[in-house]
Amino acid sequence: MQTNCLYVPTLETERLLLRELVPEDAEDLGRWLGSDEIYTYWGRKAGKGEKEPALLFIDPRPNVKRKPSHDFTWGIVLRETNQVIGILEIFDVENDRMGMVGYRISPAYWGRGLCTEALGRVVGFIFSETPLDRLQGNADVRNTASNRVLQKSGFKLEGTIRHGKMVSCYCDYNIWGLIREDICGTAENVSE
Fold first, then answer.
1. Residues 31-62 pLDDT 10s
2. 162-192 burial by CB neighbour count: b if 16+ within 10 A, else e?
């Protein structure tokens, strides 16, 4: 979770608080992040950092000077319990124009609409407070839940990659896209 992000704002929804992850969150993350079922469609099992979340907050090369990242990582905190139950990221941000969407949520909270609620709030922030014009999410065609999260969050199905590589596996996966125009309703010059 080490990040040199320029700014990760705290965002709120009815049931959730989206905020930057801090080392004190390792205990909450440890309850679910290492669960192999989260990675079913990633083609791998949980890694060492996911099984031992405290490691995610240790910089393996502290003396290396890094450029600030334009990526965003939020912990999804359930207001009711004040526990981190998920992670939502906008990563691989290119030229402040587009970024990829990724999310993981504790299996104990699957099927409750929490990921859709969190992503909807992040989409609102991205298109109102950043210069990003496009968000993209990829989901294994077999991952019905992830495809539904993207669809319910306003993303448009743009195509299916057949036998492509997604994360650590070769599979058929859907490409979902959302552009500022889809949310704001007006076309902007994208040729800049």
1. 999 999 999 999 899 999 899 999 889 887 77
2. eeeebeeeebebbbbbbbbeeeeeeeeeeee
Rounded alpha-carbon distances, angstroms, from residue 126 to 35, 37, 88, 130, 169: 29, 29, 13, 5, 29
Q: 19 lies in which domain range?
A: 11-184
Helix (H, G, I), strand (E, B) or coil at 60: coil
Domain-located, residue 84: yes
Within 20-96, strands assigned E span 72-78, 83-94
CATH number of the domain at 124, please. Answer: 3.40.630.30
CA within 13 Å, CB half, 175: 11
Give CA–CA dist 91/72, Å, rounded.
6
137 in a domain, yes or no?
Answer: yes
CA dihedral defined by 110, 142, 18, 57, rounded to 10 degrees? Answer: 100
Percentage of the chain lying above the pLDDT 90 cut: 78
| C-alpha torsion 183→115→78→80, nearest 10 | 90
**Number of structural domains the chain divides into:** 1
Asked whether residue 111 is assigned to any structural domain, the reply reads yes
